[in-house]
Design a protein that fits this description.
383 residues, 38% helix, elongated
Length: 383
């Protein structure tokens, strides 16, 4: 297990008050000491039952501040049985939850990744966080379009430092905590930001359960508290973006606000082929939790060619596709592909040219990432 060295850049910006806050949050007690240049903590025991004492400098101006604090952090890591870098992050980033993503092996260097790949990964991670916020706001099996709360949440998140060990990166999710609070768990209500991260952690846990049990239903049945279809789909997109390399997802909780007891031991999700398949199946099932009956779609034509030209070419020449805007929910419009017969397609072209609405009946279905009207009938142009 790696250790923190005195030249770690995070130590340079660390404050004594941050260290003291962390010790208190973890149940350590301050012990009086005759030398006012030192601050002493105790309250934990080693395997033989002897008290552990930690001594840190009482000022960042002292020359041995960095060496002594690095020793303290490494000791805390041993006591807590977690990586020293995570402990240091919890101390320095006391007011936020931290999500970590580690990419698998087979990169040429474990210190960097191709810029093109980073350009794919970061937007998908942003979308995953947005999906989580939207789902926490409205726990639905899937949603057709992200709401403003997803964008608002991701705007508060920050991209943290990268870390080695294959290639890893961190995303910081600040919590609205009062910096003057000295006691953990003092807030009576859990902030929305924490609830979003707990939803993500619960999703990791349920995905692991699905892999162990061999059933994606574990994920499907828990969408109200964990992943919904959008979150599952974005994780599978991330896996595909790295060409099937294993990815590891983990969370470090803000030490000032304890998570729900069942999530205290933060679950680690290793996304590999088996978990990818369960997420893929769960996404498809969740997308069809709400089956649409045969309904009438009314609106204007917004596109006259297929979303996928190759797929269009494989269809019968008697069938064409148009795209309409469909109000799937009040105030939420999505693009809906509608297959038409050749004569209907010509009428739709004329309606589009003249700015007239059309109406058609059928059953909207989610197919892959697109909505399509299945079993279309009763097409007409409105006057």
């Amino acid at each position: 297990m790696s250790t923190i060295l005195p030249d770690n850049p995070i130590l340079a910006g660390l404050k004594v008050v941050d260290l003291a806050r962390y010790f208190r949050s973890q149940g350590w007690n301050v012990v009086s000491h005759p030398n006012d240049k030192l601050r002493v903590f105790t309250g934990k025991s080693d395997d033989s039952g002897r008290d552990i004492t930690v001594v840190i400098p009482n000022s960042t101006d002292l020359k041995d501040f960095a060496p002594r604090v690095s020793e303290a952090v490494n000791l805390l890591a041993a006591v807590e049985n977690r990586p020293a870098q995570q402990v240091l992050d919890s101390i320095a980033k006391w007011d936020r939850d931290i999500l970590r993503v580690r990419l698998g092996v087979n990169f040429q260097s474990n210190q960097s990744i191709p810029m093109e790949l980073a350009g794919e990964i970061l937007p998908l991670l942003r979308k995953f966080l947005s999906d989580a916020a939207c789902t926490e706001d409205q726990p639905k099996p899937f949603f057709a379009k992200a709401t403003a709360i997803g964008k608002s949440f991701t705007e508060t998140c920050q991209f943290g430092h990268t870390f080695s060990g294959s290639f890893g990166l961190t995303i910081e999710c600040p919590l609205p905590l009062d910096p003057n609070l000295s006691l953990p768990n003092i807030q009576s209500t859990k902030p929305f930001e924490r609830r979003v991260v707990e939803r993500i952690a619960a999703g990791y846990e349920k995905t692991n359960e699905a892999a162990s049990s061999g059933s994606s239903d574990v994920i499907v049945d828990s969408f109200q508290k964990a992943f919904n279809a959008n979150m599952c789909e974005t994780l599978t997109d991330l896996y595909e973006a790295v060409n099937g390399r294993e990815m590891e997802y983990s969370i470090s909780w803000c030490p000032e606000l304890k998570p729900s007891p069942q999530l205290a031991q933060s679950p680690v999700l290793r996304l590999e082929h088996r978990t990818y398949e369960h997420l893929k199946i769960a996404a498809r099932k969740l997308e069809h939790v709400r089956e649409f009956e045969d309904i009438e779609i009314v609106g204007k034509v917004v596109a006259l060619r297929a979303e996928d030209p190759l797929a269009e070419a494989a269809l019968s020449l008697d069938v064409r596709h148009i795209t309409m805007h469909w109000e799937i929910e009040r105030g939420t419009f999505i693009r809906l592909r509608v297959p038409l017969q050749a004569h209907e397609y010509q009428e739709a072209c004329d309606a589009h040219k003249n700015g007239r609405k059309i109406a058609i009946k059928g059953r909207p279905e989610k197919q892959a990432k697109f909505w399509t009207l299945a079993y279309p009938h009763d097409f007409r142009v409105l006057t």
